[in-house]
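Hey, sorry to bother you again with one of my protein questions. A protein chain has come my way and I'm curious about its shape. It would help a lot if you went through both lines with me. I owe you a coffee for this, so here goes:
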Amino acid sequence: MEDGKIIELFFRREERAIRELSAKYQPYCFKIAWNILNNKEDSEECVNDTWLSVWSAIPPDRPSILAAFVGKITRGHAIDCLRKKYAAKRMDMHITYIEQETEIIDKMISHSLDDAIAEKELIRIINEFLRSLSEADRDIFLRRYWYLDKEADIARRHGKTVNGIKMNLHRSRKKLYKILKAEGSLL
């Protein structure tokens, strides 16, 4: 079923909307949760929580890209689940490294935005940055920072070494930093 029709089902408050959403996006959302949690039961729970959250959010929200909307919600639930799970324990090193890397990006963006730059401007800048990357570099960047794939998995996907992927990510972060600085988005 097309995304627009699924959204209309949500607006009409038809329970079939959740079945259609699940039929279309369950594997996608499960993969996002799995990459963060590496646990089947926790991942399934996050996906189920996603459906409830989408039910609560639509309406009033009308997402323009349903896949990104549900992916973001799933990612948030999975990260929350991981934080609760490891609150008193040492986190998985995979997630620890990603947190360190995303903190760098977060600092570049959230802590250094000039008050005059609107959220839409930031989205434009990031979209232009992603378009400026080669298809492979864009996939590597998104696989790491959106899907939270492990560097080893990305390396296998692209036929590269883990060190090659780390270097690629470093260069991409550096390029994003320069773009944000040139746009006046950094202090």
Q: What stands out?
A: The chain is about 75% helix and 0% strand. Residues 111-117 have pLDDT under 50 and may be disordered.
